[in-house]
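Deviations from the work plan: none for this task. Representative record:
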Amino acid sequence: MMIGIKNASKLVGISVISCCAVLVCTMFLNFYLDISSIEDEITSELSLIFYNAQVSTAKVVCLVSGGCLLITSVVMLMFYIKHYIDTHKKELGILKALGYSNLKIAVNFWVFGISALLGTAVGFGGAFLLMPKFYALQNEDKILPEIAIRFHPTVFLYFVVLPTVGFSLLAIGYAWRKLKKPVLSLLKNDFRTFVKTKKYREEKINDASFVAYLKKTTLRSKKTLTFFILFASFCFSSMTQMSFSMKELSSEMMGAMMLIIGLVLAFTTLFLAVTTVMKGNTKTIAMMRIFGYSQKECAMAILGGYRPVSYTGFAIGTVYQYALLRIMVDIVFKDMEGMPAYQFDVPVMLISLAIFILIYEILMAVYSDQIKKISMKEIMME
Amino acid sequence: MIEVKNIIKSYGDGESRFQVLQGVSLEMEDGDFVVILGASGSGKSTFLNVISGLERPDSGEVLYDTIDIAALSDNELTSFRKENVGFIFQQYYLLPNMDVDRNVKMGADLAGNKDYRTVIEAVGLGEKLHKYPSELSGGEQQRVSVARALAKKPKILFLDEPTGALDERTGRQVLDYICKLKNKYNFTIVMVTHNGNIAEMAKTVVKMNSGKITGIYRNEVLKTAYEIGW
Ligand SMILES: Nc1ncnc2c1ncn2[C@@H]1O[C@H](COP(=O)(O)OP(=O)(O)OP(=O)(O)O)[C@@H](O)[C@H]1O
Ligand SMILES: [Mg+2]
């Protein structure tokens, strides 16, 4: 009744993220399962070493990037659903006031599962499309016997069925919990949550300018968003840098895949977070514009606080990917022959940083330009 | 002095094009207290938005002394608003996630006004400095918005139905605060209202109908907020 397919179509973010996560994980897990099954066919010493290396790579990549990807996509999807329901609080309140039962309203949120299903299905299918090429590349020198691509129902269950059901239930559950509140608190814009944290009041930033203060509150009031912006730049930084090293350490294919996933994940996250920040502050910006704050000052106040956050994310990502590759080369593949030496790649880091700064600043400029389009009519539409 | 010359403003395109202001002209002295009266939909808010530099007219001039603000660029218009005008709206539009002090500081910072707390006290909210809008009554919220507008030391204060959402007692109180502050700081007031009684407080009364000014008259004796009917 209130949230139909049309609304679910706005949730492309969910689909994109789950598609990415499922694509990589399916590919590696499937490869891992298929390669495990040929263990008996291996005869020569050389192929056994190669075989072990392949299995460990699949394991590490699956665990590290797949696991990292899975966890973050779950967190992000949960945030997405929470945010979506929070912003539609009023509609929930109206329906409740009209006399619909909580469960009846909440059940409608199963459609969130659709966007998860869409994403995971595309990811899963995509993985199978890419797999022939991937398998061939992994076994380029034909050291191992032919690895047949097989369909594993468990993989399908874990990566398609479970997320779909899980996110449907999650959305229904969260909506249901929200609905337990009294009708009035759903209908009213309540900022008492701010009041609860007395810290905000007594802090000694009283002499800070309004813009500086707004910058601080924007950052603090939505910590999840700050985390996502940190994560987005972390993703960009670690995945781009790692992909270059992967080219040498593993295969070009893996490098390219990491690069694409890093970029997609970083931009979806960043886009999602910054759009949410802007939407949440439209009224504030409109009011500031009316009073005569310039576009620059508004952009500074609302978006400026995230710059150090995202640069920090880049730094953490750099350290993370270095540590990860160090561990991989020094510990996991310690005994393997022909493993190229690994060293921190300064030029690659600098290039990624330059690209990162460029893209970040362009994006911020685009968003800042949108401030111009916010008119006073925005606040009149309550 | 504000001199408005032959303002035309339309909304919509093609068939649905609708002329909201059909050639409006008006002169306002510095320190004047102007009330604009008119039926709903007669174009009062649109007129207010145009003369305060929030919207641009299709044609016509809005002269502040010698500067035509209708011809200013976006950036120039922003800095014009920053230096000259204050706004008060029917719906207050306070920032919900900031306390009274911060809401008023938003205006004060624009004028570099460090002494803005005296304005908060002047509207009787000295005790509620750290309350959030959701913790205040409608009248108190409107007084915050008065303080916010005046903390930026405007030369002209624009008010669009400032008492529209308030009951009689609170409405009178808010108007009284505004008048007291006007006597202290001597800014120009341009107020849009439905309430014909409020016109008795004003020096100049402008009547609007269907996008035109249909009458202007001046009051010899000005009543206070507690002397008018409601
Ligand atoms: N952005 C807009 N787009 C299209 N039409 C508009 C817009 N703003 C106002 N109008 C139309 O202009 C006319 C005058 O509107 P305005 O808000 O100026 O009236 P008003 O005199 O302030 O009315 P009220 O007393 O109800 O506030 C109305 O018919 C309204 O529908
Ligand atoms: Mg109006």
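Strands of chain B lie at 2-11, 18-28, 33-38, 59-64, 67-68, 85-89, 156-160, 188-193, 204-209, 212-218.
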